[in-house]
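Demo today. Your pick:
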Amino acid sequence: MKRFYQDVTTGPGLDGGWVILLDGRPVRTPGKDLLCAPSPAMAGAVAQEWQAQGDTILPGTMPLTALLTTAIDRVAPERPAITQSVLSYLNGDLLCYRVEKGDAHGLDDEQARRWDPWLTWFAGRFGHTLHTTTTLSAFTQSDDAHTDISGYLSGLSLHQFNALQVATSLTGSIVLALALTEGSLSPEDAYACALCEELYFERRHKLEQHGLDPIEEKKRAALMTDLKACRAYLDVL
């Protein structure tokens, strides 16, 4: 889409929040709602993304706009269903599915190094030790863990929950998403944990010398961008 505006400003919304204005006209989401931020800081950060566009608007360079749009158009009307989807990661969390001890490639040690600190963090923060497995068979965590995490999720604001649900989907781990949301885990470390196996084998076989496949490189760049955007989104609430 060609850029159709000159000036980008922000202003108070009629029903609260702060809207983004293009030449004085409020931006609307694809669902036709106002693109309304919960804080002036977030509105300013989103406005900067619009202001930074050149002659052509590139949505992929506007991650905060995308997150805010997701909160308004999808998460707000569908939060109960999305909550259940997030909770399902407790039983399939990336960090809980391990290779066998004594793995010939040493991946078990790498998983322990990368992942165990965050399972320990989760146990300390929420009072539940999550079970791990070395099989592909599905298993369930305790009912108490589900109940307590469900209560935690219900206490989050719309926008806190939005960042968490996106981070959960990106990493395949509600544990990593919780740690990122609470500021205990950096986007860079979340990225390294999410790609633990891939990054380990690349280092072990020195594959980085040859460079990544362009499609994989683009995919990983997007993952890092989106994880950083989740953190930035939370920082401007």
Q: What stands out?
A: Residues 105 and 201 are 9 Å apart (CA to CA).
